[in-house]
Amino acid sequence: MVRCHGADPQGLSRHRARGFGPAGGFPINKLFLFVFSLFFLSGAASAAALRVTGLQLGLNAGLTRLVVEADGPLNGSLSAAADGLGLVLTLSQARWDAAVPSSRAAGLVAGLGLPVDSAGQVSLGIDLVEPAVVERAFRLPPQGTVGDRLVIDLRPADPQAWQAAFAAPVSLPLAGSADILPPPPVSPGRLRLVVLDPGHGGQDPGAISAAGRYEKDVTLAIARAVATRLRQTHRYRVLMTREADRFIRLGDRVALARRHEADLFLSIHADSLAADRATRGASVYVRADDASDTDAEALALRENRADQLAEGAPARDVNEVVAILLDLASRDTGRLSSRFAGLLTASLGHRLTLRHNALRAANFKVLSAPDIPSALLELGYLSNPADEALLFSDAGRAELAEGVVAAIDRFFGVDDR
Ligand SMILES: [Zn+2]
């Protein structure tokens, strides 16, 4: 874009001064002018390009951060690599003039390729550990000895979100603070409502640990810890689908959130695997008709079974509760859910052990609200001694609660940069 040059004439003049050196003192004759003009013309092409002077990779509150430094404001794009799980960063009207970064793997980035200068732009391959999308990409002006910077923050994404995000190249910097804007601000005087859904309860204990402890107790304790912290911020109202050891049908959990017009719905669970004490770590799920993998599909089947334990009248099917509302569903709900789940994964990964590919998708009934961004957090595995100890400790619960609140703040745009 032409704009990037006009915005920083100093950057170009600095470059020109270095590139051409002092011209005074030379005899001025036709030959020199000819040679000089050739030099100038060839130099003009590179003078039009910004010099990329640095590249850094690191972590910022769980998000994977890439910082590109140049002698002027950069424009570019991120697109999906032609093969494999990767991205290509393209910096327009730029040329590489920096050392190869010392840190070439961090967070979601498995490796950085070597920069390639071609046709007045720089391309750089980025191999990913798991699917990632741009949470935000913004410029920072020069400061002290540091030049203009383009900052790109990546967050984890479920496979569908990854595909949708890079159906076309993503322009950098992003116009807004995120590829998906946060939900619209609430009217003055109204706090956003977060509904926390502690899984299971009453006659349904959920998963059971090796030591005989119940999922329904862990989920309630963590939901309480999250609720307390959320209320302490004075930024949210909090409603829990159950405050005590009660059985609640899945459809009623969704209906409660809808009735109160929740801004966010978070269902909290913990898993257990028979005959597998090794698997551990938290994972986060969004709803999808097609599961991201067989593990996620099996988990959704286990969690959806909760209603079979209902006593008395047959359970009101969750599909009945929401079917009538489906035509009202905002297409953005799925994207917002996915964004929240990505932020939650990043925030928890910053603090705790996560499963590999921690952000997954499956057909969870409790995530069926068509108009409320919803995610399901699996805290860990009660069948794993380390996870069990963590989930039944005050310190572990505090860390989890803090991670959840940080993700909610970021989702609603409270936490900026
Ligand atoms: Zn559960």
Automatic annotation (TrEMBL):
Transmembrane annotation, as ranges: 31-50
Catalytic function, reaction form: Hydrolyzes the link between N-acetylmuramoyl residues and L-amino acid residues in certain cell-wall glycopeptides
Residues covered by the MurNAc-LAA domain: 254-409
InterPro entries the UniProt entry points to: MurNAc-LAA_cat, N-acetylmuramoyl_amidase_3
EC nos: 3.5.1.28
Signal peptide: none
UniProt keywords, alphabetically: Hydrolase, Membrane, Transmembrane, Transmembrane helix
EC category: hydrolase
Name this protein carries in UniProt: N-acetylmuramoyl-L-alanine amidase
